[in-house]
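Example: Helix-turn-helix domain-containing protein.
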Amino acid sequence: MKNTFKVDSISEYNDKVGQETFHPLISIVDLSKLKPSDPELLKTISHFKLQMNIYAIFIKDSKCGNITYGISNYDYKEGTLIFVSPGQVFGLENNEEFQNSSGTAILFHPDLIYGTPLAKHMNDYSFFSYDVNEALHISKRERNLLNECISLINFELQNNIDNHSNTIIVSSLELFLNYCNRFYERQFITRNKANKDVLARFEKLLKDYFASEQTLLTGLPTVNYLAKKLCISPNYLGDLLRKVTGKSAIEHIQLKVIDVAKEKIFDNRKTISEIAYELGFKHPQHFTRMFKKSIGVSPTEYRNLN
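Written out as structure tokens, the predicted fold is:
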């Protein structure tokens, strides 16, 4: 049975794992040197859950224990990166002794980036909302680049804080995240075969959804519904589709709606409103608006053209 630990601040995390706090809003932790102050935490460190109200990035060396959200295959074996957003609950499994854990953790409070350029586009780093089986795997060269960013942050933390410290720390953190964005794009490319399999399953899900009476029961399919069926996170599904096809998940759903609608419109026994309801629209005007935006004419005009 897993123990759940709640962490609300950098100092609280550092206190739990025996790490000195050099800055109240950010911490770089060498996981091989942790010395938990709580004996109970030491006993359960190999089987626990954390709920953190701070951002966390865990770089797990390949020789460490497995992450419970599990990964089916590795692109590289130099390291695995897990990104945790505030409020997220995650778990770790480790069959080794705690002292033998290896890797690095970067933890930062949202207050660190408030009022900075980084805060304005944190949502661009969608991997903070990926599921655990969508971790980032990096090469030795990529790991070295990330280590340079970590060293820049560490240098600032180990020296006296001045008026420039926060700017340099946040800039280094942003550089780190930008590299991660690049590496995730590489991972989408190197997993081309697996991505095509996901795309095929995604398209089949859409086809089966509209072929059944599911639309009458639950309305239009959502990205969340499709992602759950595919056992991946909505953000990962959206990013994968954009990388592979150039279109978002929403765009794929809308295109499927239009394709099915075109077939149904040929049946003159059904009104446009009836077709809209069959497709899962609660309001026929929403269907008409989507159809006209996509095709250039209304469903009624399209029917009369054919």
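Confidence is low (pLDDT under 50) at residues 42-47, 64-75, 94-100.
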